[in-house]
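Extended Data, panel c. Modelled sequence:
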Amino acid sequence: MTEHRQMQIGEVAERTGLSLRTIRHYEEVGLVIPSARSKGGFRLYTSADVDRLMVIRRMKPLDFSLDEMRDLLDITDRLAASDDAPAGEDRERLRERLDAYREMADARCETLRARLAMAEDFAATLRQRLENEPGRPTQR
């Protein structure tokens, strides 16, 4: 069962780990739009909006641009559409584009793993140098 409860931006920020400013920015650039507004004009979000923000949040460390994020979200929105869903060649083209984003994400993850390995190696080198420093008292 899908959760239909609406949340204000503060709760959404807490759930996603994003700042209020970041969520508002993503709204300004058209990546996410609040599902509704309260009578007082406050943004109201659903769990689907939170899920969308989490996709955006997960793309950010992989250095996807706002345009790439927008394109990927458009692809997934179109593929998930229950009314006016793409069919045939249109659907296949969307799936190919989605697969290209998956390949990009995989490649970027591999790059990050390699960079992390180098950073860990560097940190280990520093620890070793500190431990082998002449005149340093030995620990028991």
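The helical segments are 9-16, 20-28, 47-59, 66-80, 88-131. This feature is highlighted in the accompanying rendering.
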